[in-house]
Task: inverse folding
């Protein structure tokens, strides 16, 4: 275990540590973050009213829309000179959301991932292929730092180019890999086709950033000849490494010395008793650059506070079972229907939004993403070239807005089913 | 001769063409010539019909997207070189043809080319000035000039 004392800390001590850190964080944020201060004032709360984690439920929530409203740096609790790195991910509209990390934050992040890596048996003798994308997405750089932290060798492969991925893992003798689970399935299939499974040195895989099932886990393990572990995270809180599985694969340990999870009823907003399913809410108690109190993740989840067989006392979260909003995760990318609406609205000079239907499926273990757009009189010309141009324009605009390829189909007007007068926007056929 | 053509958006789905032809049939609209340009997802059905504006109206009522556009109809001799002669006149005069289709006429020895060009009036004049023994397509086919 990387940090035995912390990871196995008796819960009473852990809660004491959380309380101290929460009190400090609230005080610090009240002084430094306008949005938080305003919300506290609206509730008539002062930092002194928070004496420990028993007072957490009194505090105001934070929302994804806050990141848009205070874009780009308005929620940072440190001056920019202390922000060492930023990452970004999709917002609910065309505007991305930005998060920032201080030196301490980056170190904490690397440590969270290092704990997981050691927990699943990765050591400095391992060669770790990071096949998460490097860039504004937190996946690549996040795992990279954790691998370096434990002293293993990192192959900063990034995502894409499957043939090169496979050649690299064979030639460089990679013993561990991380990527999205659907990409792992795809790699597994290509490896099967090429008949090169016996040339692999892989033992362990760490997969996350999109929903996956136990069936997928077994298939990935079988195809790649590895043990596959689940990792969870979101940019707003940290990136990958907020929680992850241990060797026993019975839920993902949330590193509670840094993050306090709660489960709330998304309707009543009341905190639910241990073990119940509801919306997952996180409070970051050590983050400096971009701290959040009671951030509503919209992931539907449940928590298990029993001590794990591995000896760790940190709470285990179940794999999220869905969302309390309309966000889709397609090939690891967060997609909101509102982003698509924004693009479509821009087509016709902002006059009308054509009816559309998002169709997502998983075929050969890869997410397919198609968009039906109802044709309108103004989009129709009598030659195929001009219509194809419209189709291409939609595809290109969506690619740049979402960072994701989509197959656009122009369909007949009024052909998209409407229920109670409102069009159905998403058809998700993936069986996860 | 300049005639009006109706162009219809056809989603690439079983039964779409049938639905369109049913609407035209029920409204007593006669089809004289047609062509279907298709892509993977959709097609554009272009037709010369007895009453293009009525066709547009009834198709629109049924939620089908269509447009009435002007095209050039040229009657040519149905013999080797007939097509070439007319096409050469247009090409020599730098008229770019966006698409075309053709049909054989009832009258023996004649065929009709339907051409979509940018400057339909200019192209019409070129044909008139250069083709000998020009036949008005309406004489050999149920077409009415614009």
Result:
């Amino acid at each position: 275990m990387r940090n035995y004392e912390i990871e196995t800390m008796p819960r009473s001590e852990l809660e004491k540590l959380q309380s101290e850190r929460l009190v400090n964080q609230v005080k610090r944020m009240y002084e430094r973050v306008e949005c938080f201060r305003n919300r506290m004032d609206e509730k008539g709360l002062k930092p002194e009213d928070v004496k420990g984690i028993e007072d957490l439920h009194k505090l105001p929530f934070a929302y994804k829309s806050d990141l848009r409203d205070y874009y780009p740096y308005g929620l940072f609790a440190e001056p920019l000179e202390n922000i060492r790195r930023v990452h970004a991910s999709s917002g609910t509209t065309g505007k991305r959301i930005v998060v920032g990390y201080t030196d301490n934050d980056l170190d904490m992040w690397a440590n969270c991932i290092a704990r997981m890596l050691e927990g699943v048996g990765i050591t400095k003798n391992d060669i770790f292929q990071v096949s998460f994308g490097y860039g504004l997405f937190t996946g690549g750089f996040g795992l990279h730092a954790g691998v370096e932290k434990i002293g293993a060798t990192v192959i900063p492969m990034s995502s894409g180019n499957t043939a090169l991925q496979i050649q690299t893992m064979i030639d460089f003798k990679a013993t561990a890999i991380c990527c999205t689970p659907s990409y792992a399935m795809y790699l597994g299939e290509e490896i099967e086709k090429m008949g090169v499974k016996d040339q692999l040195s892989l033992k362990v895989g760490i997969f996350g950033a999109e929903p996956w099932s136990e069936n997928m886990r077994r298939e990935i393990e079988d195809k790649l000849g590895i043990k596959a572990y689940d990792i969870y995270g979101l940019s707003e809180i940290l990136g990958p490494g907020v929680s992850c599985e241990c060797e026993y694969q019975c839920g993902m340990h949330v590193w509670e010395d840094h993050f306090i999870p709660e489960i709330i009823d998304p309707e009543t907003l009341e905190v639910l008793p241990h073990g119940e399913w509801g919306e997952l809410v996180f409070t970051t108690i050590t983050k400096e650059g971009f701290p959040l109190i009671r951030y509503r993740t919209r992931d539907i989840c449940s928590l298990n506070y029993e001590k794990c067989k591995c000896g760790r006392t940190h709470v285990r979260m179940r794999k999220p079972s869905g969302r309390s909003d309309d966000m889709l995760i397609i090939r690891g990318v967060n997609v909101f229907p509102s982003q698509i609406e924004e693009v479509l609205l821009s087509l016709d000079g902002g006059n009308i939004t054509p009816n559309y239907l998002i169709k997502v499926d998983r075929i050969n273990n890869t997410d397919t993403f198609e968009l039906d757009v109802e044709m309108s009189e103004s989009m129709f010309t009598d030659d195929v070239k001009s219509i194809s141009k419209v189709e291409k324009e939609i595809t290109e605009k969506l690619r740049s807005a979402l960072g994701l390829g989509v197959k656009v189909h122009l369909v007949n007007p009024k052909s998209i089913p409407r229920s109670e007068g409102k069009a159905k926007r998403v058809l998700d056929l993936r069986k996860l | 001769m300049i005639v009006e053509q109706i162009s219809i958006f056809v989603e690439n789905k079983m039964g779409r063409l049938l639905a369109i032809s049913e609407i035209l049939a029920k409204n007593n609209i006669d089809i004289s010539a047609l062509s279907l340009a298709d892509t993977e997802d959709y097609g554009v059905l272009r037709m010369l019909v007895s009453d293009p504006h009525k066709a547009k109206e009834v198709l629109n009522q049924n939620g089908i997207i269509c447009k009435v556009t002007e095209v050039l109809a040229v009657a040519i001799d149905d013999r080797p070189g007939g097509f070439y002669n007319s096409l050469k006149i247009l090409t020599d005069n730098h008229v770019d043809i966006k698409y075309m289709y053709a049909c054989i006429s009832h009258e023996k020895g004649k065929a009709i080319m339907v051409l979509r060009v940018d400057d339909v009036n200019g192209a019409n004049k070129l044909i008139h000035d250069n083709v000998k023994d020009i036949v008005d397509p309406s004489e050999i086919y149920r077409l009415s000039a614009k």
About this structure: Strands of chain B lie at 2-11, 31-38, 42-49, 66-77, 97-104, 110-117. Chain B has a mean pLDDT of 86.
